[in-house]
Structures are given as structure tokens and as C-alpha cells.
Amino acid sequence: MHLKFNEKSNKTTGELASPYSHHPTPIQHQLEIHLLLTGLQPT
Fold first, then answer.
1. Under a CB-based contact definition with an 8 Å cutoff, are residues 18 and 9 in contact?
2. What pLDDT, on the 0 to 100 scale, is given for residue 9?
3. Residues 12-21: pLDDT tens digits?
4. What distance in Å separates the CA atoms of residue 29 and residue 11, rounded to the nearest whole number?
5. What is the Cα–Cα distance from 5 to 3, expressed in whole angstroms?
6. Which residues contact 15 (CB under 8 A, 6 or more apart)?
């Protein structure tokens, strides 16, 4: 699994968003939720 991510995201660090958006890790998922909540709910 890691090899697939590395191969796909080997182009640039920005490419990480593509594979990880399809198969996000628990931490990545939490970060996305956090960013989403903070983005939708400005303080």
C-alpha cells in the first residue's frame, strides 16, 4: 500500500493529496475534518 502511494506521489509532494484523498489515513482523515470544520466555521 505504501509503495503504491509512493509511486503515485513520487512526482511532487502536492500529488499526495490525490491518493490520500481516496484512501486517507486516520490521521490524515482527522486533519481533513479539522481543516474542513475550521474552514466552514470561522471564529
1. yes
2. 44
3. 444 455 554 5
4. 22
5. 5
6. 8, 9
